[in-house]
Structure formats: C-alpha cells, structure tokens
Amino acid sequence: MSAANWRKITIITLVHIGFVAVWWGSVILMEVPEYILPTPWQALKTLEEENYNWLTHFIATSQEIFGGYIMAVVVGVGFAVMFSWSKVTDEAFMPLLVTLNMIPKVAMAPLFIVWLRFGVDTNIVITFTICFFPILLNTARGMREVEPDLLDLVKSLHGSQWQIFTKIQLPGALPFIFSGMKVATVLAVAGAIVGEFIQSDRGLGWFMLVTQEALNTDAMVMALLLVTLIGVILYGLVILLERIFVVQDARVE
Amino acid sequence: METPFISLKNVRKVYRTRDIEFEAISSVSLDISNGELVCLVGPSGCGKSTLLRILAGLHPHDDGDVLIGNSEFPFDPTKDIGMVFQQPLLLKWRRILENVQLPAEILGLPMKAARERAKDLLNMVGLDGFEDKYPYELSGGMQQRAAIARALVHDPKLILMDEPFGALDAMTREKMNLELLDIWQKSQKTIIFVTHGIQEAVFLGTHVAVMSPSPARLADYFEVDLPHPRKLDIKTHENFGVYTRRIYDLLGMD
To answer: CATH for B1-80+159-254, among 3.65.10.10, 3.40.50.1580, 2.60.40.1910, 3.40.50.300?
Structure first.
C-alpha cells in the first residue's frame, strides 16, 4: 500500500477514535446519567448479558439488510437492463416507476404486514422496496451513457446488439451501478430498522423498542452501534467490489 | 484503366425529421484508388462527416452509387473498415492492449494472432511498453495513437478518420501528422481523412477533396504533387502554398 493510502487510513482511524473519546469524556465530565447516555464501555458491557440474545437479533437484522439489499441489486439492475433493451418497455414503464418511487416506502410497511407474514421475510421486502429505486435509476442512466461514436465503431464492424451490451454498455454502466448501490446501503439499514419498529419479534430495531420500555439506554446504544456496524460492513463490501470491478478513473464519486 | 477502389457517383443524402428536410450532401462524385490518402476538407456543415458515415455503411444514401472494392482489392463491408474519431473513445475499463484488440473480438478473429498483431501495432505507433496501462494513464496524443492502432488491428482495407487530431494541441497535432504519414506508408492502407485544417489536408493528402456547404457538394478535387516521404519542411515548398491558396480561394477565405 502506498504512503498516501496509509496516511488516509491513519487519519480515518484517529478521527473515529477521537469521536469515541469525546463521547466518553463528555459523559464523564458532564456527569450524564447512564439512562440518558451511557459511556462506550457501559454500552459494550451489555454484550455480556445473555438474556439479551444479541446474536439472534444481530443475525435477524443482518438477514433483513443483506437479503433486501441483494434482492434490490438483482431486480434493479435486471429491470434497467430490460429497459435498455426495449425502448417500448422503457417509455411505458419508466414513468410509472418514477411515480411509484414517490410513494413513501415506509408507509407501505403496514400494507406489507397485511399482505405478507409477520417477521423477517416481510422486513426483507420493505428493505428491498426502499433500496430498489436508486439502483434501478442509476443503472438505467449508466446504460444510456454510451458514446454515439463508439456505437458507430461497433456498428461499422457489424457487431451484434449482444456484443454492444456485453463489451460496451454493461461495463460502461458499472460505475453508475455502484453509485446507486452505495446510496442504497444507507437506505437498506434504515429500511430494515423501520420494518422492525412497525412489526417484528426480533432484530436490533425491535430490541431497541423493548429495552426502551425498561429505560435500558446502554443496551439501546449498543443495538444502535451494532446496526451501524452491519451498515459499515455492507458499505465496505460494496466499496471492495467496486475496487475490484471498476477501474479507478471510471469510478463515480 | 484500373477500376477505382472507391467510386462515388452522384451521391445524395437527405436527413428528414417530421417537419424539415435537410440536404446533407447534394451531389458528390469521386473516384479513389487503392492506397491513396484522401483528405476531405471543408467548413462545418459541408457534409464531410456524413460522407464518411456513408462510406462506413452507417447511414444509407438516398441517391447515386457507392461502390467500394475492385477485383484486385475485394472489399467486405462487414470487416474491412477501421474508424478513428475526434475523441479516442478508448474503453476506460480496458488496458491499452485490450482496447486495441476490440475490433478483432467483435469480428471473432483468432485472439492469439490478434494479440500479437495488436502488440506490433502498438510498437508501430510508438506505444511499446504501454500495453498494460489504462487509458487515463496516457496523454491525449498517446490515446489517439492507441485508437489508430485499434483501427488497424483487424487489417481493414479502408481507414476512415473523422478529424482525428482536432482535439489535440497544435504541436502534438503536427507530430501526429508526421506519424500518420509514417503509419500510412508502412501499412499501405487507403485512408479517408476528414479535417477542418487546410494546411493539414495539403500536408497529409495524396489527394484533397474540398467540400463546400449550402448546397453541400464537392467543390474541388485534386492530386497533391508533393514528394513522399514528407517532413514538416515541405510546408515551405512552393507547391504547398499554391495548394493551400487554391483551397482558401475556393472557400472564399482570401
């Protein structure tokens, strides 16, 4: 790794440690009671409490986030590809999707509960609905961004539509796909938690509501940290994939 | 007399939208022999790029005849065209060597041979050692050289260039002109080169076709009687001034 990269990583690490230190210091200096805001250590110590079933909740929320997210990537990219192949489909359904995108997805949750079973699967669907649109819209845009002269070059060699798609359109759209995927990571985390708030019997969001009743703020903060951790892992994986599949120059920041 | 490699007779092209008809080319007749480097010069809107796209088979023409190829040099429109544009249009996600191989991939040519040929061509355009770089690591002039190598990789009989050096700075452009002449002499290809530059047209061309707008037509066509190989000092040659003068006059720029 280059010196510039090490410098970047060092700064990022220091800033994060600094944030935790400020939190910790403020709680102690200002004598904030534990039920308002625990110290990081107090929050961490709740992990020892076996009754809290951390692992169950962590797995449930992870399933919702990753499940809904992966579904959104597959379906979103799939739809965008379909639209790029058929102009009629694009003209007919794109406006409908833009309208549907206006529906506050969170408000769909009560309906999903009526339509589907109560539980993790329903939260996957809620997460999917929230993540789906940015991925679809970004990918569709990427598919359209093809240099006309480049198409001429391929057409002058009588290249097929399939060759144009696999050699030019799809790799050209990859930076846009990743741009949509990055936006969607934040939405995925929010989607899963909102789903759990509305209906669930497990998961970190549900657990926060339960511990709130007992004013176990330390456990609530710990749950929040774990949700954030899942989000960071998801985002990290997306960045990693982007590094592997997208040439530096082509990345959309 | 031998049959020309390219023969255009009264070629006419009209673009139609719902409301208007626009005559992009009113009538062009032109014969080009194999191995010539013909410069199409003229102001914007004179139809020179349109003519290039008709030759590439990208746009159908409305009237007249377009014949390419003869018994000695048969022409296959599906694989005998190489194109270079104003922008290099290299694929950002491919290394230079992979970019140069693109036409061979599209045509389904044997890739091992194409790879070797791509390497040779990169050598010829002065990009040896850059095979594994990405386009963004190369300067504009170097990218355009890679684009020229790409246009040659499938060994086409006709190279069509649409203002290939138009986006480069003046000094790089002169250098590229010299290199193009070198590439042309080594490869023995027929090249049609579209440009705005009058001096560039005379310097490069074995022949110059001057096109004028409204109506878009061929205003003049002549052979450039200047010796090959040409170096930049040919621009001080007496005939060089005569030819450029002739074009300036035609285009009403005297």
So the answer is: 3.40.50.300
